[in-house]
Amino acid sequence: MKTGANNLITDVDGFLVGHASDADIKTGVTVFTAKQDFTAAVQVMGGAPGTRETDLLAPDRLVQKVHALVLAGGSAFGLEAASGVADALSARGIGIDAVTRKIPIVPGAILFDLVNGGDKNWSENPYKRLGTKALEAVQTKFPLGSVGVGTGALTARHKGGLGSASLVLPSGYTVGALVGVNALGSTLSLSGHFHAAPFEIGDEFGGRGMPSQADPLAETFNTKVASVNTATTIAIVATDADLTQAQLHRMATAAHDGIGRAIYPAHTPFDGDLVFAASSNKRPLQNRDLEMMELCHAASVCLSRAIARGIWEATPTETDTMPCIRTS
Predict the structure, then answer these.
(1) Which of 27, 65, 265, 290 could form a disulfide with 37 if both were Cys (CB 3.0 to 4.6 A apart)?
(2) Domain harbouring 173, CATH code
(3) CA 47, CA 267: separation in Å to the nearest integer?
(4) In a structure prediction context, what are the per-residue pLDDT tens digits for the chain, which is 328 residues long?
(5) Would you say 311 and 182 are in contact if contact means Cβ atoms under 8 Å apart?
(6) Residue 271's closest CA among 315, 306, 229, 225?
(7) What span, in angstroms and rounded, lies between the C-alpha atoms of 297 and 279?
(8) Cα–Cα distance between 304 and 175 in angstroms, integer?
């Protein structure tokens, strides 16, 4: 397998990503969208999720497609980012026809970044504004690291960040991942090797090599002293394969393996770990069962790599409470 042209989720034809960040608050929003509505599903495996409109993504619900997905910082305050996106899409005439106006379907998820050294004493919730700004910035190429939803992200011992990765499969399908890494656990072994090292392509997250067999995989819960609640990894995996909501739910479930392989510990009671799955519905399946297995595996591999890339690309600021991996 090889990466797509940009090694980003937008290598999946039809999708766009935009970021908005606030350096003073140390937070941000990332929007994932397309030029037309698209099929989406979700799987939540963390114990402390924060979500908007995720119930409608079940296969038995009336609405089968969405217009955007939103990943935001700010804990519960960040859910307002999806309102900014929905308002802006509606103003463009995008959404479900409800006679009087268009209603965009914009599910979202948030991570907790309220104790990262930023100024959280805002007088007005900033996330609606950030959501609108992120939508205005969508494109096929975008930066990684301390941007968008990854702006103020933290992990156990290092700054978190926004990561992405892609794969082009031998069958011709493309799979990609996008993730905000703000985990209770760590993405590195105690010797400084990424847990995702077995899946690295080239030196996409530094080429730091493999941990030895004697190297401890994870810390013994010596995690964030700032607050046990500063956690959550939220992600999107996407493909151009024409999948139903039920098939995408299976893909999102499999993609959680990518979190478990890249972050130790993962899916804790204090993490709101969540994965959306999306399809641009451009390429029909030829052999449903075998190709589904391939797509699900690729989604988990892409997500592991995206997690490590988000940490590797993080950049420092003066008020940081955690070091960046490149400067520690």
Answers:
(1) 65
(2) 3.60.70.12
(3) 7
(4) 799 999 999 999 999 999 999 999 999 999 999 989 999 999 999 888 999 999 999 989 988 899 999 999 999 999 999 999 999 999 999 999 887 889 999 999 999 999 899 999 999 999 999 999 999 999 999 999 999 999 999 998 899 999 999 999 999 999 999 999 999 999 998 888 999 999 999 999 999 988 776 665 555 454 444 445 568 999 999 999 999 999 999 999 999 999 999 998 899 888 989 999 999 999 999 887 889 999 999 999 999 999 999 999 999 998 888 999 987 6
(5) no
(6) 229
(7) 16
(8) 13
Query: Cα separation of 174 and 239, whole Å?
Result: 6
| Run of H or E residues at 253 | helix 245-262
Q: Beta strand pairing status for 65-72 and 27-44? A: antiparallel
Residue 318 lies in a domain: no
User: 3-state DSSP call for residue 139?
Assistant: strand
Residue 258: partners with Cβ closer than 8 Å, 6 or more residues away = 177, 299, 300, 301, 302, 303, 304, 306, 307
Domain count, the chain: 1
* Measured distance between the N- and C-terminal CA atoms of the chain, rounded to whole angstroms: 32
| Token pair 């010797």 in the structure block, residue | 191
Residue position matching structure tokens 């794969």 = 167
Task: Take residue 23 and report the two structure tokens written for it.
Answer: 């350096």
20 within domain boundaries: yes
Secondary structure letter of residue 154 according to DSSP: B
Give domain status of residue 204, yes or no: yes
H/E stretch holding 39 reads strand 27-44
Residue type, 314: A
By residue range, what is the domain housing residue 194? 9-312
pTM: 0.95
